[in-house]
Amino acid sequence: MGQSQSEKAPLLEVRNLKQYFPVKGGVLGRTVNHIKVVDGVSFEVFKGETLSIVGESGCGKSTTGRAILRLEEPTSGEVLFQGKNLLDLNRKDLRKTRKDIQIVFQDPFASLNPRQTVGRLLEEALEISQAVPEEKRHPRIIQLLEDVGLRADQMKRFPHEFSGGQRQRIGIARALAVDPKVVICDEAVSALDVSVQAQILNLLKKLQGQYGLTYLFISHDLGVVYHISDRVMVMYLGKIAEIGNRASVFSRPRHPYTQALLTAIPVPGKAKAERVILQGDVPSPLDPPTGCRFHTRCPLTKERCRLEEPSLQSVGPGHFAGCHLL
Fold first, then answer.
1. Among 130-144, 177-191, 259-273, which range has the highest average pLDDT?
2. Which of 10, 102, 190, 322 would bridge 180 by S-S if both were Cys, CB 3.0 to 4.6 A apart?
3. Rounded to two decimals, what is the model's pTM?
C-alpha cells in the first residue's frame, strides 16, 4: 500500500505567507498603513494533485499565487519548493527555479506578445529555459501545439488571429514548454464561455496525466472548481476559512462562508436550495475587522466572533475550518 498524502513530503509548502502593500501619506510620503492582502496563509501542495483556491474578488487568492512566484515580493513567510525556500533565492537562482513553476494568466492576450507568431512565442520560451537543444525545438513546438489541441500550421499566426479559447491553449503550451512541475492557473477559464471553459478544464486534466503536472488552480467559481480539484482551499480577506478534500468541502462545508458560496451553485435536476445571501461587500484589507474577519457578514455571528480570531481546527480527515461555532 502506498503512502497516504499526509505521510508524503509536499512538493510545494507555503508557511505563514504575508503580502502587505504599504500606504503612503503625509508630506514626506511615509508609510502610514498597510493593505493586508494575504495575512499569514499556510498550506501544502502534493505532487500530482490539484489544489484549488477559491473566494470572492479581493480575498487574496490571486495575490497568493503571484507571491509564490515572487511576481509580487512577499512581505514575509516561506515558500518551500522541494524543500528550498524560494524567498531566499537571488534573482539568478530564482530564474532557474521558475521553469519548474509556471503560471497561466486569466487574460492570455495580455500575456502574449502581439508582434510575435505563436511559433516564435514558444521558441522564445525554449531558448530562455534552454530546456531543449536548438535542433529539437521545431519538433517540440509542433508537439506542444498538438498537445493543447492546435495544429502545426497555426504556428505562423499571430495571437490576434485566434479565439479566446485558442489563445488560452497557447498560454498553456507556453507554460508547458519548459517542462514545469507545478502550474499555477490564475482564473485561467473565467474569461471564457461556459462551453469553452469545459474544453479547457478537460484539456488541463488530460495534460496533468500526460505531463505529471501539479496544479494550483485559482478561481472564484466553485462550480468550475468542483470539476478539476482534488482539494479545495477557501480564502476570505487574506485568511484561510476552510481547506479539505473536494468531497468533504462540497458535501460537508463547515465554515459559514463556504456554505454561503456553495448555495450559489446551480444544481441541474434538483430543487434549488435556499440561497444564503451575504450582506454587504468584502471589507477593505486596509482595515480588516477584528476577531473573525467574516463576522461582519456572517448570519451566525456571536460576541466571541467579534473579539477573537479563530484558528483552523480539524473537522474531519484532512479537513480544517476556522470558525468559533464548530
1. 177-191
2. 102
3. 0.91
